[in-house]
Amino acid sequence: MANKHTTRPITTGTSVVGLVYDGGVLLAADTLLSYGSMAKSFNTPRMVSIADRVLLGASGEYSDFQEIVSRVEALALAETTQSMESVYDERTLSAKSLWNYLRAVMYQKRSKMNPFWNDLVVAGFENDAPFLGVIDKLGTTLQENLVATGFGGYLAMPLLREKWRPDLSEGEARALLEDCMKVLFYRDCRASARIQLAKVTKDTCIISEPYELDHSNGWNAPSMQRAVGDLDGDGGW
């Protein structure tokens, strides 16, 4: 049987951005997949719901993400089956357990020189407290109130650090994530204005349908208008 190696990412998705707010965790990601520099698919989700109140999102190679999801779903099914077979054992796959499992998976793959080319975000609830963690393709992990993968680490994190506070309401958290996704759309040539939001609380886990950001104000900003005006004048263009 031939060896199968992903030597470099080919069909990729860009940033996933997440934050903890007062009452839950919110994630955001666009739905664009790029084939190199070409936009291949405009409506492909990169966030999934796993087990009970656990979210998993990913940037990077999409085929590797599909393989990770199939492994995680098999693990969640095994946990559920074991729990059903035992009267005394009510186990479900928690967010922190999934985070630790994926850390081991990513580390094992990179140790065999055949990594999954993904950065993963795990969100959920752990002991009635919100949980948010990230794992990179080397198996390095981070648990934090604010996370961003891909170009979001450079473009979205400064905005998150400036405006985040622990008592953010759900509406404020959503507005902040949408601002981050707009910045990524303006600055990251692999990002799209078509996004999804995902929310996990004590009681629910929801992934929204894809929708378009209202990004017209960015192009109508005074600085952009001056730049366009210079095209017809002698402003250095």
SSE layout:
Layout: E1 11-13, E2 16-21, E3 24-30, E4 33-35, E5 38-41, E6 47-50, E7 54-61, H1 62-85, H2 95-111, E8 118-126, E9 129-135, E10 141-143, E11 146-148, H3 152-155, H4 157-163, H5 170-187, E12 194-200, E13 205-207, E14 211-212, H6 216-219, H7 222-230
Notes on the protein architecture:
By secondary structure, the protein is an alpha+beta fold. It has a single domain (11-230), classed as Glutamine Phosphoribosylpyrophosphate, subunit 1, domain 1 (4-Layer Sandwich). The chain contains seven helices and 14 strands. The strands form two sheets. Strands 1, 4, 5, 6, 7, 8, 9 and 10 form an eight-stranded antiparallel β-sheet that branches. Helix 4 packs antiparallel against helix 5 (170-187). The longest helix has 24 residues, at 62-85. The protein is globular, with a radius of gyration of 19 Å. Residues 233-237 have low confidence and may be disordered. Pfam families: Proteasome. Its main location: cytoplasm. It is found in: Cytoplasm; Nucleus. InterPro entries: Ntn_hydrolases_N, Proteasome_beta4, Proteasome_bsu_CS, Proteasome_sua/b, Proteasome_suB-type. One of its GO terms (cellular component) is proteasome core complex, beta-subunit complex.
Order of helices and strands: EEEEEEEHHEEEEHHHEEEHH
Kindly give the count of domains.
1
CATH architecture: 4-Layer Sandwich
Q: What is the CATH top level name?
A: Alpha Beta
Strand content: 25-35%
Kindly provide the radius of gyration, computed on alpha-carbon positions and rounded to a whole number of angstroms: 19 Å
Q: What count of helical segments does DSSP give?
A: 7
The first-to-last residue Cα distance is 58 Å
CATH topology: Glutamine Phosphoribosylpyrophosphate, subunit 1, domain 1
Structural class: alpha+beta
Q: What share of residues is helical?
A: 25-40%
Instruction: Name the poorly predicted regions.
Output: 233-237
How does the major sheet shape up? Answer: 8 strands, antiparallel
What's the overall average pLDDT, rounded?
87
Name the CATH homologous superfamily. Aminohydrolase, N-terminal nucleophile (Ntn) domain
Keywords: Cytoplasm, Nucleus, Proteasome
GO biological process, one term: proteolysis involved in protein catabolic process
InterPro entries: Ntn_hydrolases_N (IPR029055), Proteasome_beta4 (IPR016295), Proteasome_bsu_CS (IPR016050), Proteasome_sua/b (IPR001353), Proteasome_suB-type (IPR023333)
Function: Non-catalytic component of the proteasome.
